[in-house]
Amino acid sequence: MIQKTRVIRISPFANRLSFDAPPVVQRLRCLANYEALRFSSPILTVGESLVARMRKRGALNGGKYVSIHLRFEEDMVAFSCCVFDGGKQEREDMAAARERGWKGKFTRPGRVIRPGAIRINGKCPLTPLEVGLMLRGMGFTKNTPIYLASGKIYNAEKTMAPLLEMFPNLHTKETLASEEELSLFKNYSSRMAAIDYTVCLHSEVFVTTQGGNFPHFLLGHRRYIYAGHSKTIKPDKRKLALLFDSPNIGWKSLKRHLLSMRSHSDSKGVELKRPNDSIYSFPCPDCMCRANRTDDSRPSPAT
Protein backbone atom coordinates (compact mmCIF):
# COMPACT_ATOMS: atom_id res chain seq x y z
CA MET A 1 0.00 0.00 0.00
CA ILE A 2 2.89 2.37 0.80
CA GLN A 3 4.53 1.57 -2.57
CA LYS A 4 1.25 2.16 -4.38
CA THR A 5 0.07 5.38 -2.73
CA ARG A 6 3.43 6.74 -1.47
CA VAL A 7 1.77 7.88 1.76
CA ILE A 8 -0.69 6.35 4.21
CA ARG A 9 -2.46 7.54 7.33
CA ILE A 10 -2.70 5.21 10.31
CA SER A 11 -5.63 5.89 12.62
CA PRO A 12 -4.96 5.79 16.38
CA PHE A 13 -5.30 2.22 17.55
CA ALA A 14 -3.20 1.74 20.70
CA ASN A 15 -6.25 1.92 22.96
CA ARG A 16 -7.77 -1.02 21.05
CA LEU A 17 -4.89 -3.39 21.77
CA SER A 18 -5.05 -5.70 24.74
CA PHE A 19 -2.46 -4.98 27.41
CA ASP A 20 -2.66 -8.62 28.52
CA ALA A 21 -0.87 -9.97 25.45
CA PRO A 22 1.42 -13.00 24.95
CA PRO A 23 5.00 -12.53 26.27
CA VAL A 24 6.48 -12.29 22.78
CA VAL A 25 4.18 -9.35 21.96
CA GLN A 26 4.96 -7.66 25.27
CA ARG A 27 8.70 -8.00 24.64
CA LEU A 28 8.27 -6.37 21.23
CA ARG A 29 6.35 -3.51 22.82
CA CYS A 30 9.12 -3.09 25.40
CA LEU A 31 11.80 -2.93 22.71
CA ALA A 32 9.76 -0.39 20.75
CA ASN A 33 8.85 1.78 23.75
CA TYR A 34 12.15 1.90 25.60
CA GLU A 35 14.90 0.98 23.15
CA ALA A 36 13.87 1.81 19.58
CA LEU A 37 11.81 4.97 20.03
CA ARG A 38 13.75 8.07 20.96
CA PHE A 39 13.59 11.80 20.41
CA SER A 40 15.48 13.42 17.55
CA SER A 41 19.09 14.45 18.12
CA PRO A 42 18.41 18.21 18.52
CA ILE A 43 15.82 17.52 21.24
CA LEU A 44 18.03 14.98 23.01
CA THR A 45 21.04 17.30 22.90
CA VAL A 46 19.20 20.17 24.56
CA GLY A 47 17.37 17.89 26.98
CA GLU A 48 20.53 16.15 28.15
CA SER A 49 22.28 19.50 28.52
CA LEU A 50 19.50 20.66 30.84
CA VAL A 51 19.77 17.42 32.83
CA ALA A 52 23.47 18.16 33.35
CA ARG A 53 22.71 21.72 34.42
CA MET A 54 20.07 20.57 36.90
CA ARG A 55 22.53 18.06 38.36
CA LYS A 56 25.04 20.87 38.74
CA ARG A 57 22.46 22.95 40.61
CA GLY A 58 21.89 19.92 42.81
CA ALA A 59 25.59 19.48 43.57
CA LEU A 60 25.00 19.98 47.29
CA ASN A 61 22.30 17.31 47.05
CA GLY A 62 24.46 14.68 45.37
CA GLY A 63 23.46 15.90 41.91
CA LYS A 64 19.83 14.95 42.58
CA TYR A 65 16.83 17.10 41.75
CA VAL A 66 13.04 16.93 41.81
CA SER A 67 10.91 17.46 38.71
CA ILE A 68 7.30 18.64 38.78
CA HIS A 69 4.76 18.44 35.98
CA LEU A 70 2.55 21.45 36.69
CA ARG A 71 -0.70 21.76 34.72
CA PHE A 72 -1.79 25.30 35.48
CA GLU A 73 -1.89 26.77 31.99
CA GLU A 74 -4.85 28.99 31.09
CA ASP A 75 -6.59 26.37 28.95
CA MET A 76 -6.21 23.73 31.67
CA VAL A 77 -7.59 26.06 34.34
CA ALA A 78 -10.48 27.04 32.05
CA PHE A 79 -11.37 23.48 31.06
CA SER A 80 -11.40 22.32 34.68
CA CYS A 81 -14.22 24.81 35.51
CA CYS A 82 -12.69 25.18 38.97
CA VAL A 83 -12.59 28.44 40.91
CA PHE A 84 -9.28 29.63 42.30
CA ASP A 85 -9.02 33.26 43.51
CA GLY A 86 -12.62 33.81 42.38
CA GLY A 87 -11.99 37.39 41.33
CA LYS A 88 -13.54 39.29 38.45
CA GLN A 89 -10.42 39.07 36.28
CA GLU A 90 -10.26 35.29 36.67
CA ARG A 91 -13.94 34.93 35.74
CA GLU A 92 -13.46 37.07 32.63
CA ASP A 93 -10.26 35.27 31.62
CA MET A 94 -11.82 31.84 32.04
CA ALA A 95 -15.01 32.73 30.18
CA ALA A 96 -12.95 34.07 27.26
CA ALA A 97 -10.65 31.03 27.24
CA ARG A 98 -13.58 28.58 27.24
CA GLU A 99 -15.23 30.41 24.37
CA ARG A 100 -11.98 30.44 22.34
CA GLY A 101 -11.25 26.81 22.93
CA TRP A 102 -14.66 25.15 23.10
CA LYS A 103 -17.19 27.63 21.63
CA GLY A 104 -20.34 27.24 23.69
CA LYS A 105 -19.56 23.85 25.22
CA PHE A 106 -19.77 25.25 28.75
CA THR A 107 -22.65 27.67 28.22
CA ARG A 108 -25.17 25.50 26.38
CA PRO A 109 -28.67 25.27 27.93
CA GLY A 110 -28.94 22.76 30.74
CA ARG A 111 -25.20 22.67 31.43
CA VAL A 112 -24.63 22.99 35.18
CA ILE A 113 -21.10 23.55 36.49
CA ARG A 114 -20.41 22.82 40.15
CA PRO A 115 -16.86 23.95 40.98
CA GLY A 116 -17.15 22.79 44.60
CA ALA A 117 -18.08 19.25 43.57
CA ILE A 118 -15.28 19.20 40.99
CA ARG A 119 -12.73 20.13 43.67
CA ILE A 120 -14.03 17.59 46.20
CA ASN A 121 -13.71 14.90 43.52
CA GLY A 122 -10.04 15.80 43.04
CA LYS A 123 -10.48 17.06 39.49
CA CYS A 124 -9.05 20.57 39.94
CA PRO A 125 -5.46 21.18 38.83
CA LEU A 126 -3.16 21.96 41.74
CA THR A 127 -2.08 25.59 41.99
CA PRO A 128 1.62 26.47 42.34
CA LEU A 129 0.91 27.43 45.97
CA GLU A 130 -0.68 24.04 46.68
CA VAL A 131 2.24 22.25 45.04
CA GLY A 132 4.67 24.21 47.22
CA LEU A 133 2.75 23.45 50.42
CA MET A 134 2.52 19.79 49.47
CA LEU A 135 6.25 19.44 48.82
CA ARG A 136 7.28 21.31 51.97
CA GLY A 137 4.87 19.15 53.96
CA MET A 138 6.39 16.04 52.40
CA GLY A 139 9.80 17.02 53.71
CA PHE A 140 11.46 18.77 50.78
CA THR A 141 13.53 21.71 52.00
CA LYS A 142 13.88 25.24 50.72
CA ASN A 143 17.18 24.35 49.05
CA THR A 144 15.79 21.41 47.06
CA PRO A 145 16.63 21.80 43.34
CA ILE A 146 13.34 21.82 41.42
CA TYR A 147 12.74 21.48 37.69
CA LEU A 148 9.31 22.72 36.61
CA ALA A 149 7.85 21.15 33.46
CA SER A 150 4.98 23.25 32.21
CA GLY A 151 3.54 25.40 29.50
CA LYS A 152 2.78 29.07 30.10
CA ILE A 153 1.44 29.33 33.66
CA TYR A 154 -1.81 31.24 34.07
CA ASN A 155 -1.23 34.65 35.69
CA ALA A 156 2.33 33.50 36.42
CA GLU A 157 3.58 36.68 38.09
CA LYS A 158 0.99 36.26 40.83
CA THR A 159 0.45 32.50 41.01
CA MET A 160 4.12 31.47 40.88
CA ALA A 161 5.31 33.90 43.59
CA PRO A 162 4.57 31.64 46.60
CA LEU A 163 6.15 28.57 44.97
CA LEU A 164 9.31 30.52 44.14
CA GLU A 165 9.46 31.84 47.69
CA MET A 166 9.22 28.31 49.09
CA PHE A 167 11.69 26.87 46.55
CA PRO A 168 14.07 29.57 45.29
CA ASN A 169 16.24 26.90 43.59
CA LEU A 170 13.49 26.34 41.00
CA HIS A 171 14.24 26.22 37.29
CA THR A 172 12.49 25.78 33.95
CA LYS A 173 13.78 25.12 30.46
CA GLU A 174 13.52 28.86 29.81
CA THR A 175 15.75 29.74 32.79
CA LEU A 176 18.26 26.95 32.15
CA ALA A 177 18.66 27.29 28.38
CA SER A 178 19.49 30.28 26.22
CA GLU A 179 17.03 31.71 23.69
CA GLU A 180 19.31 30.42 20.94
CA GLU A 181 19.18 26.86 22.31
CA LEU A 182 15.38 26.93 22.39
CA SER A 183 14.90 28.76 19.10
CA LEU A 184 14.28 25.55 17.12
CA PHE A 185 11.54 24.42 19.50
CA LYS A 186 9.77 27.45 20.97
CA ASN A 187 6.96 27.54 18.38
CA TYR A 188 6.25 23.82 18.77
CA SER A 189 4.58 22.79 22.02
CA SER A 190 5.24 19.08 21.46
CA ARG A 191 8.98 19.67 21.03
CA MET A 192 9.11 21.81 24.15
CA ALA A 193 7.25 19.05 25.99
CA ALA A 194 9.81 16.53 24.75
CA ILE A 195 12.58 18.59 26.37
CA ASP A 196 10.61 18.68 29.63
CA TYR A 197 10.07 14.91 29.34
CA THR A 198 13.82 14.28 29.06
CA VAL A 199 14.65 16.35 32.14
CA CYS A 200 11.85 14.78 34.18
CA LEU A 201 12.89 11.29 33.13
CA HIS A 202 16.28 11.59 34.85
CA SER A 203 15.18 13.34 38.05
CA GLU A 204 15.51 11.65 41.42
CA VAL A 205 11.80 12.28 42.13
CA PHE A 206 9.01 13.03 39.64
CA VAL A 207 5.86 14.79 40.89
CA THR A 208 2.72 14.55 38.79
CA THR A 209 -0.14 16.94 39.60
CA GLN A 210 -2.66 16.03 36.88
CA GLY A 211 -3.48 13.13 34.58
CA GLY A 212 -2.59 12.90 30.90
CA ASN A 213 -0.24 11.12 28.54
CA PHE A 214 2.86 13.00 29.71
CA PRO A 215 2.89 11.63 33.30
CA HIS A 216 1.29 8.36 32.17
CA PHE A 217 4.26 7.46 29.96
CA LEU A 218 6.86 9.00 32.25
CA LEU A 219 5.72 6.85 35.14
CA GLY A 220 6.34 3.66 33.14
CA HIS A 221 9.53 4.88 31.48
CA ARG A 222 11.05 5.76 34.84
CA ARG A 223 10.11 2.35 36.25
CA TYR A 224 11.88 0.77 33.29
CA ILE A 225 15.14 2.70 33.49
CA TYR A 226 15.31 2.43 37.29
CA ALA A 227 14.99 -1.38 37.20
CA GLY A 228 11.42 -1.55 38.40
CA HIS A 229 11.37 1.19 40.99
CA SER A 230 10.83 4.90 40.53
CA LYS A 231 10.27 7.68 43.01
CA THR A 232 7.11 9.17 41.62
CA ILE A 233 4.75 11.24 43.75
CA LYS A 234 1.17 10.92 42.57
CA PRO A 235 -0.86 12.69 45.25
CA ASP A 236 -4.37 11.79 46.29
CA LYS A 237 -6.06 14.99 45.12
CA ARG A 238 -9.35 14.23 46.82
CA LYS A 239 -7.55 14.00 50.14
CA LEU A 240 -5.49 17.10 49.32
CA ALA A 241 -8.67 19.11 48.69
CA LEU A 242 -10.03 18.11 52.10
CA LEU A 243 -6.73 18.93 53.82
CA PHE A 244 -6.20 22.30 52.14
CA ASP A 245 -9.82 23.36 52.66
CA SER A 246 -9.89 22.39 56.34
CA PRO A 247 -10.01 25.67 58.32
CA ASN A 248 -8.78 24.16 61.59
CA ILE A 249 -5.91 21.96 60.44
CA GLY A 250 -2.50 22.86 61.83
CA TRP A 251 0.86 22.51 60.10
CA LYS A 252 1.90 19.47 62.17
CA SER A 253 -1.27 17.60 61.29
CA LEU A 254 -1.06 18.61 57.62
CA LYS A 255 2.57 17.52 57.44
CA ARG A 256 1.76 14.14 59.00
CA HIS A 257 -0.87 13.48 56.32
CA LEU A 258 1.45 14.63 53.53
CA LEU A 259 4.37 12.49 54.72
CA SER A 260 2.02 9.49 54.74
CA MET A 261 0.93 10.37 51.18
CA ARG A 262 4.56 10.53 50.05
CA SER A 263 5.30 7.17 51.66
CA HIS A 264 2.28 5.64 49.91
CA SER A 265 3.42 7.03 46.54
CA ASP A 266 6.91 5.61 47.06
CA SER A 267 5.58 2.16 47.91
CA LYS A 268 3.47 2.16 44.74
CA GLY A 269 6.59 2.89 42.68
CA VAL A 270 7.33 -0.85 42.60
CA GLU A 271 3.86 -1.97 41.48
CA LEU A 272 3.73 -4.91 39.08
CA LYS A 273 1.45 -4.94 36.07
CA ARG A 274 -1.89 -6.67 36.55
CA PRO A 275 -4.02 -8.05 33.69
CA ASN A 276 -5.46 -5.21 31.58
CA ASP A 277 -3.14 -2.61 33.19
CA SER A 278 -1.31 -0.41 30.68
CA ILE A 279 2.18 -1.68 29.91
CA TYR A 280 3.12 1.94 29.29
CA SER A 281 2.65 2.73 32.99
CA PHE A 282 3.43 -0.74 34.36
CA PRO A 283 6.34 -2.22 32.39
CA CYS A 284 7.17 -4.64 35.22
CA PRO A 285 7.62 -7.57 34.98
CA ASP A 286 7.06 -7.85 31.21
CA CYS A 287 9.89 -5.48 30.23
CA MET A 288 12.43 -6.29 32.92
CA CYS A 289 13.89 -9.60 31.68
CA ARG A 290 17.06 -8.86 29.70
CA ALA A 291 18.67 -12.36 29.98
CA ASN A 292 19.24 -13.70 26.38
CA ARG A 293 20.03 -10.27 24.93
CA THR A 294 23.22 -10.27 22.90
CA ASP A 295 25.36 -7.39 21.74
CA ASP A 296 23.96 -7.89 18.24
CA SER A 297 20.38 -7.54 19.51
CA ARG A 298 20.97 -4.23 21.24
CA PRO A 299 19.90 -1.16 19.28
CA SER A 300 22.60 1.01 17.81
CA PRO A 301 22.73 4.72 18.71
CA ALA A 302 20.28 6.89 16.79
CA THR A 303 21.62 8.83 13.86
Provide structural commentary.
- The protein is mainly alpha-helical.
- The protein has 2 domains: 39-72 and 126-288, Rossmann fold (3-Layer(aba) Sandwich); 73-124, no CATH class.
- Helices cover 47% and strands 5% of the residues.
- It has 15 helices and 5 strands.
- It has helices at 2-5, 23-36, 41-57, 74-80, 88-102, 115-120, 128-137, 156-159, 161-166, 173-176, 179-182, 189-201, 213-225, 237-244, 251-267; strands at residues 66-69, 146-149, 170-171, 205-208, 232-233.
- A 5-stranded parallel β-sheet has the order 3-2-1-4-5.
- Helix 13 (213-225) links the parallel strand 4 (205-208) and strand 5 (232-233).
- Helix 3 crosses helix 12 (189-201), helix 4 (74-80) crosses helix 5 and helix 7 (128-137) crosses helix 15 (251-267).
- It starts with a helix and ends in a 36-residue tail after the last helix.
- Residues 291-303 have low confidence and may be disordered.
